[in-house]
Backbone:
């Protein structure tokens, strides 16, 4: 059970967590990697459709991810013999096996360059999570990661909004594959930007969050509206509501409900016939349908996509068709067009490309860190706030993953956020469990076995 009362009492204590403490700061190079991975996720609008076409942006993406892979690998190897490094690698072992399986799947993939490139990008993300977990020392590191992610997402969305109004021909955040940034990706960026800022402000109250909150929410909300992403809007409302309910003082919750009731009473006094409400609902429905009146009932055409992809999965259920490939030929006919379509569903994307073997490895990869994080909650430390926030964020990724491929799709800002948050959760949880292990080994190892310093032969970061 999650101790919500403990979460509130810590969050409302009035003592914000120490932030940007140089004694426990993460290496700056980690955030250089984060910025490079997030910013180089757009595409040239006039890029020809086809495998093997490499423009300057694609070359920059390859360079950024290749250099990131090298940097992250070297950083992690430096901590190989440490207590924390060994525990992190053990925790992320299933993800490592998934990466290896994805590399093996290149052998039977009909689009070998696509599979190799995409599994390489996924390996970079796993290494990012491993490094953040390994170098995590205190909540000051949590503040750093939140700040950098919030800043880069804000920078990214400021650029998208500016391009949308100043250079409309580039196709910023529109529903077309021939666009600078697809609207689905833009909606996810904006949604996560809002959630991270609300979380930083409500959960920890960091000073920088006070500065970024209003301008950040304004920019992200604008982008969210322009993206016309129904799923992103619904997931944002759900996550923000959960954040409010879990972390805000109960008195404020009741005050908010009372204010809402008073507002409803005032509204009824001035508009008893609900004429204004009817107009608003009508406009909202028109906006949500996006001039596609049947799109909501068939999930914007996804029902057709899921049926075709499921049939493709059944032709190779054990090993799939190769990482990030959805058919034996590399092409599927969906929406009157052939292409290597993504499944638009996280679970189905893993199954069709890596088969049941990959699906089981992914479940193991997600379940192992979750088990460790939940185990750390029993210690009742300040890290509980982080774990509770991650549980709320997990609901966002679950909702988003039902309609999109989420972090198992191409490398996008949302996947960088996912693995950065995964690294924070693992780092914080292992730190708590290692401290408890030193005091009472039996209590700390009931959920996870941690290596001792004698076993690892090194000290490393605690």
Residues:
């Amino acid at each position: 059970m999650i101790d919500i009362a403990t979460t509130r009492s810590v969050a409302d204590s009035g003592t914000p967590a120490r932030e940007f403490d140089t004694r426990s700061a993460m290496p700056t190079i980690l955030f250089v990697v984060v910025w490079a991975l997030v910013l180089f996720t757009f595409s040239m609008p006039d890029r020809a459709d086809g495998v093997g076409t490499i423009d300057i942006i694609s070359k920059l993406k390859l360079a950024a991810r290749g250099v990131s892979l090298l940097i992250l690998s070297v950083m992690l190897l430096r901590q190989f013999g440490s207590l924390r490094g060994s525990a992190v690698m053990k925790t992320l072992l299933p993800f490592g096996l998934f990466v290896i399986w994805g590399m093996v799947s290149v052998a039977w993939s009909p689009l070998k360059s696509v599979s190799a490139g995409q599994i390489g990008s996924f390996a970079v993300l796993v290494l990012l999570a491993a490094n953040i977990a390994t170098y995590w020392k205190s909540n000051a590191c949590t503040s750093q990661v939140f700040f950098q992610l919030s800043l880069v997402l804000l920078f990214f969305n400021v650029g998208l909004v500016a391009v949308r109004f100043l250079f409309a021909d580039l196709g910023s955040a529109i529903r077309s594959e021939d666009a600078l940034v697809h609207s689905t990706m833009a909606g996810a960026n904006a949604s996560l930007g809002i959630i991270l800022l609300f979380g930083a402000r409500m959960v920890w109250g960091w000073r920088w969050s006070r500065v970024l909150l209003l301008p950040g929410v304004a920019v992200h909300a604008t982008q969210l509206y322009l993206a016309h992403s129904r799923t992103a809007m619904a997931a944002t409302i759900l996550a923000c509501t959960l954040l409010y309910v879990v972390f805000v003082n109960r008195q404020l919750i009741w005050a908010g409900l009372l204010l809402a009731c008073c507002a409803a009473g005032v509204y009824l006094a001035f508009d008893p016939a609900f004429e204004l409400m009817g107009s608003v609902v009508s406009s909202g429905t028109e906006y949500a349908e996006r001039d596609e009146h049947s799109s909501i009932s068939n999930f914007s055409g996804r029902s057709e996509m899921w049926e075709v992809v499921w049939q493709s999965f059944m032709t190779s259920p054990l090993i799939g068709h190769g990482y990030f490939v959805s058919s034996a030929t590399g092409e599927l006919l969906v929406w009157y067009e052939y292409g290597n379509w993504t499944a638009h569903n996280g679970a189905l994307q893993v199954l069709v490309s890596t088969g049941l073997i990959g699906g089981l490895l992914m479940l193991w990869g997600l379940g192992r860190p979750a088990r460790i994080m939940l185990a750390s909650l029993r210690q009742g430390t300040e890290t509980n706030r982080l774990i509770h926030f991650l549980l709320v964020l997990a609901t966002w990724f679950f909702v988003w993953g039902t309609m999109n491929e989420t972090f198992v799709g191409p490398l996008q800002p949302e996947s960088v956020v996912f693995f950065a948050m995964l690294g924070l959760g693992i780092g914080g949880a292992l730190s708590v469990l290692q401290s408890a292990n030193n005091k009472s080994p039996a209590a700390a190892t009931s959920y996870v076995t941690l290596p001792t310093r004698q076993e690892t032969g090194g000290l490393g970061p605690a």
